[in-house]
Amino acid sequence: MSTTTAGRAGAREWGGLAVLSLPTVLLGLDVTVLYLTLPSLAEDLRPSGTQELWIMDAYGFLIAGFLLTMGTLGDRIGRRRLLMIGAAAFGIVSVLAAYSTSADMLIAARAALGVAGATLMPSTLALISNMFADQRQRSLAIGVWATSFALGMALGPVVGGAMLNHFWWGSVFLLAVPVAIVLLVAAPLLIPEYSAPRSGRFDLISVTLSLLAVLPVVYAVKRFAKDGLDLPMLLAALVGVVFAVLFVRRQDRLESPLLDVRLFGNRTFSAALSVLLVGLVGVGGSMLLITQQLQFVEGLAPVEAGLWMGPPALMMFLAAIGSPLVARRVPPGLVVAATLVLSTVGYGLLALVGPSGGIALMVVGFGLVYLGLGAIAALGTDLVVGAAPPEKAGSASAMSETVQELGLALGVAILGSLATAVYRSRIDDQIPVGTPSDVADAAGDSLAGAVASAQQLPAGWLDLAKEAATSGMNTAMLVAAACTVVLAVLSAVVLRHVGVIGDGPEPAAESLPAESQV
């Protein structure tokens, strides 16, 4: 099968990009659609509180844990091959999830979906880096890829709501089946195969150490978001750090490591990863808080809230497509910094939202936040992948995805916890004396609990809860604004050495043997 080498991509490669965007849309949709299905799912399967949490979290745990492993595995066995295996597995397990007859069966299916999903993201991104050898074309292609995930997230509430109006809760999982079929048919025709030569044996000890490093950290972040700072959270974080040190030490000794830690010696690679991590923290927290604000404070149905999230998704699309084009004339560090300044303005607008009638302000503010996200997702990812040798593209892509997953989770944990703390401090003295303890606990814990307990509380009390929740969101957005303006300055400084896209050689690590192409 012929492939494009160092020349410009043609119609086949752009068609392949369309195929690679499909699983990316699907994974983005999977992030948001489950929130809609949870009520009807819970009514059918009757999960316990713990099972309900695992239904939501099992997917995220496993996809974060296996990203690095799957990215490196694709480098060894072939990136298209791994993509097709993962797509087939994702389609099959989605059917099992759709027809789950118990909560435990659905948890197992969601965990398996996480493992399968971990094969898709790094594979698609690594293949794009190989198909588009020209710097300018690659940057634009990665911009398209980045927007596909946001498109899926925006479509989740809309598509999910429409399907739940006509079908049972499991129908939303079946959306993966036609996507998997199209990918399996089209991939051999439009996507060339790539694998790294002399990649060495696959070190299972490194795989185990990476899982023991990533999974406890993800658990610690999620537990902090739910329960705050406690002993189990601290122990999990400590375990993750210990195994991370062991993992890095082992990689230094291996001839063919799971993760080539020499990549971090490239300042473009390290700086871009840092921008992605910190930038996604604000986005993850604001995404959670805005969604809650639209539904619990403004009283919108999930489908309506999803439609209002459409304009911000369009802003991200424009930034992800436009920023690589601008970066052909303006250094990427300055482009990222400028869009992050606009995101800071967006966070400032969100800090001004009141407890009623603030939908338009939220949409404009969140749209500006998404402008920054589009730029750092497109340019940051491009810099990470471009700074790695071609045969390490899968590993670099997996690192990019891992830090973004971690950034989103940290955003939910840090900004969500901050908003919750403000809510609890403001509402604690407002609960009427004599309120049943279970009602008082639910109402004092979160706005969702207050909404569920509204009929058992005095008239007008829910308005106080909405004001407290809005104040919590405002505070979190002010913190996000302060952090983002600092990140904008740092982006301009730490990426100042990167020239405009397409001007001179790539900022790559040391050259390694060329990869095999089939």
Strand-helix topology:
Blueprint: H1 11-45, H2 49-77, H3 79-98, H4 103-131, H5 135-164, H6 176-190, E1 194-195, H7 204-227, H8 231-253, H9 267-297, H10 302-308, H11 310-326, H12 332-350, H13 359-386, H14 393-427, H15 437-445, H16 447-452, H17 461-494, E2 516-517
Antiparallel strand pairs: 1-2
Helix pairs in contact: 1-4, 1-5, 1-6, 2-3, 2-4, 2-7, 2-14, 3-4, 3-6, 4-5, 4-14, 5-10, 5-11, 5-13, 7-8, 7-14, 9-13, 9-14, 9-17, 11-12, 11-13, 12-13, 12-17, 13-14, 14-17
Describe this protein's structure:
This protein is an all-alpha fold. The protein is built from 17 helices and two strands. The chain has helices at 11-45, 49-77, 79-98, 103-131, 135-164, 176-190, 204-227, 231-253, 267-297, 302-308, 310-326, 332-350, 359-386, 393-427, 437-445, 447-452, 461-494; strands spanning 194-195, 516-517. The protein has a two-stranded antiparallel sheet. Helix 3 packs antiparallel against helix 4. The N and C termini lie close together (6 Å).
Low-confidence stretches: 1-6, 505-518
Number of helices: 17
H/E element sequence: HHHHHHEHHHHHHHHHHHE
Shape, principal axes of CA atoms: globular
Please state roughly what percent of the residues sit in beta strands, choosing from under 5%, 5-15%, 15-25%, 25-35%, 35-45% or over 45%. under 5%
The oligomerization state is single chain
State the main characteristics.
disordered C terminus, two-stranded antiparallel sheet, 2 strands, 75% helix, mainly alpha, 518 residues
Provide a concise account of the structure shown.
This protein has helices at 11-45, 49-77, 79-98, 103-131, 135-164, 176-190, 204-227, 231-253, 267-297, 302-308, 310-326, 332-350, 359-386, 393-427, 437-445, 447-452, 461-494, and strands at residues 194-195, 516-517. With 518 residues, it is an all-alpha fold.
